[in-house]
Amino acid sequence: MQVAPAIRSSRLSRRATSLLLLAPTTLLYLTVYLGGLVMVLVMSIDVPPGVDSGGATLAHYRDVFGSAPIGAIVLRTLRDSLATVAGCLLLGVPVARYITASASRWKGIVLMAVLSPLMVSAIGRIFGWIALFGPGSVIADGLTALFGGKPTGLLYTEAAIIIGLTNLLLPFMVLSVASSRAHFEEDMSKAALSLGATPLSVLLQVELPLIFPGILSGALIVFSLSTTNFVTAALLGGSGRDLVGYEIYLDILVYFQQGRGAALAMLLLVVVVALMALAIQTGVQRHEVRDTAARTRGT
Prior knowledge:
single chain; mainly alpha; MetI-like fold; 2 domains
């Protein structure tokens, strides 16, 4: 008769211990992230300086929505972010396959090369790209010889921004896909090949659907980080090719238009979260359809 109370007491003790262990992280999350988010939200609906009003206002949001340059910056940000995701996918999936393949001999060296951008400071890495892209470089001289024009190479172009972001965020894609492919059984590929499937069909119909969760998570990480990056856009893109993150930085710390910068930050958050939720929902539906089809074939 005393066993049940003892089991119940043990469960309560484990639950209390778990909550106690989670308390510091939860407190930090609530204070730093949610607290900062609430402050930005309040700032975005606060009245501009010098305006005599006792309540909140949506003037900053109207200013953002009514600004044609802001619309162009948002579209450029989404375009460059999607191009960065595509570049990371094209480069990251083959590297992740090599790292997780059982027959790979140089996986340690390749993994170290992939992670090397994270070991260098952002400023030093970007100035390296400037030296590679800028005037006097081989790229600048080659482009000038082929197409003429100013000898600036790829510097101060959207291509430079996309290349810099791809170099910066490629490790996140590789690690995400590699973690998903680590559970992939290579015997499945061998079995499909033995049944007459081509290597391309095995890749598209067997391997990629199984590692799709890693591809989706990597794409979401790269997209969210690229939309909020401003250092790369500021140094490689130059004037006239601003991204949203750099525009928020200018509004808050340079132009001292905190309300407009906060409104732009909240709108960027909403757009990114909405796109990520749509991607996650699409992935879940795709997984459910594949499971349903597999059960149908099994019956």
